[in-house]
Amino acid sequence: MKPVIAITIGDFNGIGPEIALKAAVHPSVRKICSPLLVGPLNVFEHAAKKFKIKVKLRKAIFPVPQNTETYILDVGDGIWADVQPGAITKGAGKSAGAAIERSVDLCTRGEAKAMVTAPVSKEALRLAGYDFPGQTEMIALLSRSKRVAMMLVSETMRVGLVTIHIPLRDVSENLNKDKIVEKADIVHESLVNNYRIKKPKIAVLGLNPHAGENGLIGIEEKEVIAPAVEESRKSGMMIDGPFAADAFFGKKAFKDYDAVLAMYHDQGLIPLKMSSFETGVNFSAGLKIIRTSPDHGTAFDIAGKGKADISSMLEAVRLAVTFSAAAKK
Predict the structure, then answer these.
(1) If DSSP codes are grouped into helix, strand and coil, which group holds residue 147?
(2) DSSP string of 10-34?
């Protein structure tokens, strides 16, 4: 039987409904899984009509039938679904948050093998009472996962992050040896369990320009990052660094490693998105459940125009299916 993959609606004022629905009916998706859309039924019906998507929408029943119809777990009861493309609204945040909650529940109960989340607006989520830095942190809490590392993956590279959605000025004080060791361990574990790489190699980036120039441009490399790398190496991990980030990516040194561990969000994601913006995937490594997501945001500027590229969403579904199959072994 094909695995059931829950696909959340994301922010319905962005491109979430469009890419979720288009992915769910795409032949490449139907071939490998049974997609289950999670969100307000009336919003998906609105999207299908607006974007002229030929689809039979049915309210979900469990177990999800293995047929040609598209099933939706409706979270619309009591949710005001006034679609306003490009706007940040409490209703959109409430809908997105409810879809995440229901999808996590499906995965923890085994009714879905993985979840794929469409992009959300953090501001809209907070208006609705979901006070999280991002979906990764929210899903970790809901799934009772004690450890998680945000990874962005593509055909060219895999990048894990030590810090995620915090201001740049706060990065240094949020770095410590134990945290770096933990994130390196989660990334290593993911490479072994999800990607089936027996002896993965990980590269660790420095924080400062030129990796601190031996303490002349910053002390984090000497006092925090290098000791973390050494501790990870002693545990048996094949890990190197800290590397100067600009030279590392400029020389394409990432080709020599199975994953890269970056100290902060943009340090790792800018080079990945420059090479694979349309097909990159966000993966939450270390969770008790499998969760992937496209590597882009809500794209409010093109919401409702039918112009959204679904390539990253298709890759997110494919990766979720691949990981769910690996989990059986």
Answers:
(1) coil
(2) --TTTTHHHHHHHHHT-HHHHHH-E
- 152, 200, 251 from 256: Cα distances, Å: 17, 11, 11
Q: Across-strand partners of 314?
A: none
Residue with tokens 């000025």: 169
CA distance 70 to 103: 16
| Model-wide pTM > 0.85 | yes
Determine the Cα–Cα distance for residues 193 and 159; give it in Å rounded to an integer.
16
Structure tokens at 319: 């990766």
Helix axis angle, 41-50 to 16-24, nearest 10°: 80
Please tell me whether residues 172 and 193 are part of one structural domain. yes
User: 187 and 167, same structural domain?
Assistant: yes
Domain of 246?
Answer: 148-278
Question: Same domain, yes or no, for 259 and 164?
Answer: yes
pLDDT in tens, 154-174: 989 999 999 998 999 999 999
d(CA 188, CA 60): 37
